[in-house]
Amino acid sequence: MSSHHDDDQPIHVPQPSFSPPLLGFGVMLIAFGVLLGPVLLVVGGVILVIGITTWLIDDARAYASAPEPTDGAHH
Predict the structure, then answer these.
(1) Measuring CA to CA, how many Å separate 16 from each of 5, 12, 25, 54, 56?
(2) How do residues 49-68 score in pLDDT, each as one tens digit?
(3) CA-CA distance, 75 to 35, in Å (whole number)?
């Protein structure tokens, strides 16, 4: 059997981040806010925006520090 995995290339694993659970918590608060009142909607919306912002910042930092591809895949 032939493997499609190239052994000289490391596997990309993203760094741990609090952003996905923060996003989930914001969405949960928004859902509860629909049922229980506008205060939770606002708090959930703020947490959601913070979660998206931190995730985008983390992603931009990872992209900026990533090595250039050497196999010509991104031409």
Answers:
(1) 24, 13, 17, 12, 14
(2) 999 999 999 888 888 887 77
(3) 50
Q: Beta-strand (E) ranges in the chain? A: none
Burial class of residue 15 in the structure, from the number of CB atoms within 10 Å of its CB (0-12 exposed, 13-18 middle, 19+ buried): exposed
CB 33 within 8 A of CB 46: no
* 3-class SS shares of the chain: helix, strand, coil, % to 5: 60, 0, 40
| Residue type, position 39, single letter | V
Provide the 10 A C-beta neighbour count for residue 1: 2
Letter string b/e over residues 39-48, b meaning 16 or more CB atoms within 10 A of that residue's CB: ebbeebeebb
